[in-house]
Amino acid sequence: MNLHRAQEILAADEKITVELNGVPVWIDSVDSSKSLVKVHAEENPADSRLVTVQELEEVH
Q1: What is the pLDDT along the chain (60 residues), one digit of tens a residue?
Q2: Which CB contacts under 8 angstroms, 24+ apart, belong to 44-51?
Q3: 10 Å Cβ neighbour count for 40?
Q4: Which entry of 3, 9, 13, 51 is 20 to 30 Å from 35 by CA?
Q5: Degrees (nearest 5) of the Cα angle 37, 24, 43?
């Protein structure tokens, strides 16, 4: 995924499925200066982490 798409998904009104290593995640924030994205697992909101935007995959 690229940084622009991550920002679009974060701002979207509808739910867009995003995965990190095959696990569905929510995007919490995007740090465009570092190309980092804060995400948390859908099933476990307490499981948040910073990852590079390239690690995320949009599921169609």
Answers
A1: 999 999 999 999 999 999 999 999 999 999 999 999 999 999 999 999 999 999 999 998
A2: 51/20
A3: 16
A4: 13
A5: 105
